[in-house]
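Exercise: predict the fold of this chain.
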Amino acid sequence: MHPGDYRIMNVANPNSAMLIDRQDMWGYEATVIRRYAEFMTWSQGGDPDQPTSYVRFVRYDPLFAMLRLRYVFGQHGTELEIGDAPEPPMSHLYLISSYRVLPDRNAIFDALRSVTFDPTRDIILESEPEPKPSPAERAGMARIV
């Protein structure tokens, strides 16, 4: 595995990322945040009104790049397969001033599927931010220390 700030998804053996000192896209918490479970259920074609903390991952979703997914582990017969995610993972931190407010979850999910949505340039919020970001022509810079 390559060093870096990314996550993996192991569909063959969920929760095994900790064995190789990596972060799993699903996480390790005993409880799952409802909106995250709704998103993951929806990403797999399920009904977000019936989220579960036991999502069966059956397909890759390009939005997983927002979750920093870099590698996907799967099993083909008795062989473990490792592949790069089709989309490069986003970095851990972005400063983005362009946003829109959509207070309805289903409207947010619809907007995420829009061909014009770019998570590196646009943010979708459920309510107005306070304070509001200053408009900027170029992306800001930040570093996690």
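Check your answer against the key: The longest strand covers residues 69-76.
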